[in-house]
Amino acid sequence: MYTILVADDEDLERQAIKKIIEKTCPEISTVYEASNGVEAIELYKKNKPDIFFCDIKMPGKTGLEVVREIRESDKDQIIVFLTAYDYFNYAKEAVSLKLNEYILKPVDNSIIQSLITRLIQNLKERNELKEKNEKNEKRLNLLSGFFENEFLAAILNNGNEHDFVEEFKEIFPHDTNICFACCFDLNYSNFPDFEKVDNHLNLLKQKIIQIIKGELDKYRYSHFIHERDNIFFLLMFPDVETFNEDFTSCEKHFESIESILTKKTNVLVRFVLKATENSAQKVREALLEAKEVLQVSKNGVTMCTNASDIQEMMENNQIQDEEYVKLSSRLMKLMQEIGQKIDEEYMSVLTLDEAAASVNLSSFYFSKVFKQYWGRNFVDYLNEVRFKNACILLENPKMHIKDVAVKAGYSDANYFSRVFKSMSGITPSEYRNKNIR
Question: What is the mean pLDDT of residues 8-24?
Answer without folding.
Answer: 90
